[in-house]
Amino acid sequence: MAISRIRVASAALALFAGLGWPSSSWAQQEVEVTGPPSEIIGNVYTSAILGTLGSIQLFLPSINQALVAEGFPPVTLNPDRLALDLAQDVATAFVLTSSIGNELSTFPLGSSAGGFSWTFDPSLGVFNRASDSFGPLFADRALTLGEGRFSAGVNFQRATFDTFQGKGLDDGEIQFYSEVVPDIVGLGTSFVRTENTLNLKLSTTTVGLFANYGATDRLDVGVAVPIVSVKLDAGLHQRLALFDGTPLYDTVFRGRAGATGLGDLTLRGKYRFFDVPGGGLAAAVDLRLPTGNEHDFLGIPATQTEVFLIGSAAYGRVAPHVNVGYTFSSANDLVDPDGFGETAFLLEPPAEFNLAGGVDVSVVPKVTVAGDVLIRTLRNTARLVESTSEVGPGFQEFRTAFPTNVTVSYGSLGVKLNTWGDTLLTGNVLFPLNRNGLQDSLMLTVGIDVSF
After folding, report:
1. What's the whole-model pTM score?
2. Digit-coded pLDDT (tens) for 61-78
3. Nearest one of 41, 31, 32, 38 to 91, comparing CA atoms
């Protein structure tokens, strides 16, 4: 049997060489696909599957000629079964696209709360600062603006994402394989397989506009309006290869897309129900409306409601704070529950458990330094994990696992500077603390906040 395996393998290689099929020096082909950002990844996957189905029909007669010459029966492919086997590639694209879209559109933009908090002194008829600190940058504190006070601000954030689930987006780490012709001669690996490598370049630029109003001394209401620009470049390198890696078909399927527009608008209310010096306890609700275009990755196909509890205090110049919340998601009519049709790559965003905590320090009267840890646990969602491929031992691929919880955590460190009057300039860096989810290794946020 060992001799037969060697003979048929040698015969197959000799036959393909004689027919002039590609060698390692064969030039790659490139196929362009189109579509909005939410469909680009899926479109390169489906285009690659069609390429596989077409190319195996082209090469199958030569494969069978080599097999029959060595006394093996010819291969009869069932196109429906092959398409079903390859459909798991679409499932990977489906999960990858939905996960990226959800996390991209809900990435932390910074706290919308104003940096100045005031309390009214009725004996003097004036407002006094409630805290020496200007507050955190990505979390919130229990202090409110003060009745009749108003704050407005704008943040600018640029993100170039590097990893997803710990895998490099643009360095060939996202790989998967498909068995096209099984191991019919006992070689220990698929006789013909596809080798697929996905590379993504993904970036966003976001301008966040914030406004807050002190309806009473204890109640703040506010709104956050993001303007988002997204750029996505996806390339799927596919090789149809023999058992020893000899390429039969080598093509890159590439799609580029971008969009700029309104993101998902957030309405907010915060009520302080318990007081301590420089802080207290407050309850807050954020209502995220699906005003952004989901097909362009500018928003998510759901209304989200986050309910959270805020605790903070002040000990001289040091002010610790903690936020604990839960986010409920309710899909809109753009989500196809079967995952097909016009919205094939849109899934309902998962519910989330949210935790944030840290400390802000008034270093000098006009400068506050703040640090936070932000934790998001996405519940009952899909993730991509490494597993052993069906094509044979030694082949590890990126596939989907569902359902599971995915915890994404970030660290934040920044400064608020009181330049003049009641105006604050802010600068912050956000960095990942684990390898889960969609991550940028270092992201800068700058902004301005004015109180009236």
Report:
1. 0.84
2. 877 887 787 777 887 776
3. 41
